[in-house]
Design a protein that fits this description.
With 220 residues, the protein is α+β, with helices and mostly antiparallel strands. The chain has 2 domains: 76 residues, 3-Layer(aba) Sandwich (Glutaredoxin); 130 residues, Up-down Bundle (Glutathione S-transferase Yfyf (Class Pi), Chain A, domain 2). A 4-stranded mixed β-sheet has the order 2-1-3-4, with helices on one face. Bound molecules: glutathione (GSH). Glutathione (GSH) binds next to α3. The site of glutathione has 10 residues, from α3.
């Protein structure tokens, strides 16, 4: 059996869970210590020296870090049902969407994750506004290229949906804590995609798992 080391709060493991579910693979979930709480990571560092989630441990004990690497591995090892288009251009588009998310959107968000670690009264509002603007600029890269048929690319689920949906969930459901930041409403194509992808049964289920984890983390 495959073992996925992950947390339900992180936006990266959903991408892997989606692939495992789509391909009908059996997997168990282990939540390693020290991911969102600054505690010691202990033994987990032997499984994933990078110390982040997700990591996938194969049946023979070998471990793979990094969500994109894991998804590509699963695609190579279990090509059916495919989560990449058949043609080279389509495959490149799916990878481009994931890459824009990983490199530009996520990177623009990182300073905001650090800012919210402090109580709101201590936030540097000018810095918040600057970082929110940067996230908006990164989202502008997606706006003209996002799919218009309910999926990130084409008319079926691909790896790009696994990458984008959890990040757009952060934009839509977490970023409003920074007052005035309605980045989705300002981007109609992305917003339409975000509404539509929640209706996909598997993607919708993964999004709900994150919502449930957020509520648990708030003690509700
Ligand atoms: N590029 C990585 C990002 C993974 C990542 O940053 N995960 C965070 C959780 S949101 C983490 O494990 N952080 C723990 C830490 O930095 O100590 C991937 O795609 O797998």
């Amino acid at each position: 059996m495959l073992t996925l080391y992950q947390t339900y709060l992180s936006p990266f493991p959903p991408r892997v869970r989606l692939v495992l579910m789509y391909k009908g693979l059996d997997f168990e979930v282990v939540e390693p210590p020290g991911i969102h709480d600054g505690a010691a990571k202990g033994e987990y560092l032997r499984i994933n020296p990078i110390g982040r989630v997700p990591a996938l441990v194969l049946e023979d004990g070998r471990a793979l870090p990094e969500s994109e690497v894991i998804c590509e591995y699963l695609e190579d090892r279990y090509p059916e049902p495919a989560m990449l288009p058949a043609d080279a251009w389509g495959r490149a588009q799916v990878r481009m969407l994931s890459r824009i998310s990983d490199i530009y959107v996520v990177m623009a968000m990182l300073p905001l994750f650090n800012i919210v670690a402090a109580p709101p009264a201590q936030w540097d509002q000018a810095a918040v506004a600057r970082h929110v603007r940067s996230v908006g600029q990164a989202l502008d890269l997606l706006e003209p290229v996002i799919g218009e048929h309910g999926y990130a690319y084409g008319n079926k689920l691909t790896h790009a949906d696994g990458t984008l949906a959890p990040i757009l969930q952060l934009v839509a459901e977490w970023m409003p804590i920074f007052r005035g930041a309605d980045l989705m409403a300002e981007r109609p194509r992305l917003n339409a995609y975000w509404q539509a992808i929640q209706l996909d049964p598997l993607c919708g289920a993964v999004i709900e798992e994150t919502r449930a984890a957020v509520l648990r983390s708030m003690g509700r």
